[in-house]
Structures are given as C-alpha cells and as structure tokens.
Amino acid sequence: MTTQLITKLPAILDPTKIPQHVAAIMDGNGRWAKQQGLPRIAGHQQGANTVRSILRCCKDWGIANFTVYAFSTENWGRPEAEVNFLMRLFEGLLDSELDRMHAEGVRIRFLGDRSQVPIGLRNMMDKSIKKTVNNRAVTFNIAINYGSRNEILQACRSISKRVKNGELETEQIDESLFAKYLDTHGLPDPDLLIRTSGEQRLSNFLLWQLAYTEIYITNTHWPDFSNDEFTQAIADYQQRNRRFGKV
Ligand code: IPE
Ligand code: IPE
Ligand code: MG
User: Is any atom of ligand 1 closer than 6 Å to the C-beta of 213?
Assistant: First the structure.
C-alpha cells in the first residue's frame, strides 16, 4: 500500500481490511427531490455528484472495484420523460467526466444489456470502455439496463449453444465457468453492498454475485450519502465476521 493511500484513508478504517469490491444500489433520488420540493430529475442530477465523490474515495482508499446500479431492466416502466432524462444524463455525464476519470486512472465497464440502450449513450459507453481499458487505479462498473435474471438467462443461452455445438460438456459447467458468462466476468464478487433510502430488497441486482456479500442499508437518500457515511459503512463492514458458511 502506498503512502498516499495511507494518508488519505480515514483514521477509523483498518488498512488491512479494505473491501476489494463495493456495490451500491443508489436509491432515493426521487424521494430526496420531493423533500426539497424539486422535480424527480433534480434528484438524479444531485445523485451524480454523490457517485463522483464515492468513486474518488474508492480510488483514494484502495477499493479496487466500485459498481453502481444506475438503471434496471424494470426502470423502463417509468414515465417516458424520466427515462429519456436519465439516458441523456448518463450520456452527458460520461462525456463531461471521461477525461477526468481517465486522468485519475479509472477503468470504466458496464453491466447490462446494451442492445436496448439509445445509440448516443451506447456510443459514449463504447468510447469510455476503449479509452480507459488499460487503467488500473479503480474499476468503475456502471449497471445500465441491468437485470440479474436477464444476465443469468443470457449466460444460460450462451452456455447451451456451446454445449449444442459440441464445444463444451455438460459436466464442465461449474460455478467458475458459469461466472465467466456473466457481465461481471473477471471481477471479484462484491464484499459490501450498500443500499440507500431504506428499502430492504435487491431489486434484481447481482443475484448470483451477492451470495456472500455483506449488506449495509441506510435510510439516507443517495444524493445525501456523504463520504463520512461511506466511511461509516466501511467501518461497519470491517467489524463483520464473514463465515462463508463455516464455523
Ligand atoms: C434511484 O432513485 C435512481 C434510479 C432508479 C434511476 P429513484 O429514482 O428510484 O428514487 P426513489 O426511490 O423514487 O426515491
Ligand atoms: C433500484 O431502485 C434500481 C436502481 C437503483 C437503478 P428502484 O427504485 O428501481 O427499486 P425498487 O422499485 O424500489 O425496488
Ligand atoms: Mg427507487
């Protein structure tokens, strides 16, 4: 661990127990906006600032992977104006933040089915992946049009095709092979899942990958989720006794 990491790490955190992968269900943008007397989209805009600062914490504290749930396969059911706003917001943010993220060593990846994403955003996603592919400071995974059940079905389809073509034996399908067909291939499973805004559910997020993940749920709405509370969440995680089914 470099001196820089140690000096930036909040004093209450144990540098020997830093999670390798933190995932977040960024919920409560709409409720935050309502509280402020603002339209829901103002909450999404404010939520983007939280993403920026938590990503920076991950980089500074040595958390190698940060994954955010930005848009679920179920979120298409929201009013068209909100969906369109979100797609434009994602595209605009990637455009405006890409150079800075690249300069900071962020590698950008996406989870989810790209085929239904508007072309402008999809092009920006491709550009972000290409530009940052060799960066190693932190991997930032953004789930857009992501649904875990859909991801698992796609994996089943791809594996079945290979079996049908004689490229794979049924007996060869084990957990590690299966994981290679998920959008998260190559990433460690999340150590910690944070869900803001108090709901106690997974909402179709990383159902396979979260099998042994520690969960931190807070009533704070995502736009209000501060670096201090992130520190608190990591401190809480560091107190957990992870048994993985053993004694
Ligand atoms: C999370 O905030 C952001 C997305 C799902 C895109 P919400 O928009 O779900 O906010 P609430 O849950 O309505 O407060
Ligand atoms: C989960 O939030 C999805 C994202 C954060 C993108 P939702 O607001 O869509 O989840 P539910 O509807 O409360 O389960
Ligand atoms: Mg919500």
Answer: no
204 Cβ inside 6 Å of ligand 2:
no
CATH number at residue 197: 3.40.1180.10
Mean pLDDT by 10 residues, the chain (247 residues): 64 98 98 98 98 98 98 98 98 98 98 98 98 98 98 98 98 98 98 98 98 98 98 98 96
**Structural domain boundaries enclosing 223:** 18-147+189-236
- CA 27 – ligand 2 centroid, Å: 6
Q: How many domains does the chain have?
A: 1
Verdict on whether the full-model pTM lies above 0.85: yes
The alpha carbon of 179 and the centre of ligand 1 are apart by a number of angstroms equal to 28
Is 218 a pocket residue for ligand 1 (Cβ < 6 Å)?
A: no
DSSP the chain: --HHHHHHS-TTS-GGG--SEEEEE---HHHHHHHTT--HHHHHHHHHHHHHHHHHHHHHHT--EEEEEEEEGGGGGS-HHHHHHHHHHHHHHHHHHHHHHHHTTEEEEEES-GGGS-HHHHHHHHHHHHHHTT--SEEEEEEEEE-HHHHHHHHHHHHHHHHHTTSS-GGG--HHHHHHTSTTTTSPPPSEEEE-SS--S-TTS-TTTTTT-EEEE-SS-GGG--HHHHHHHHHHHHH----TT--
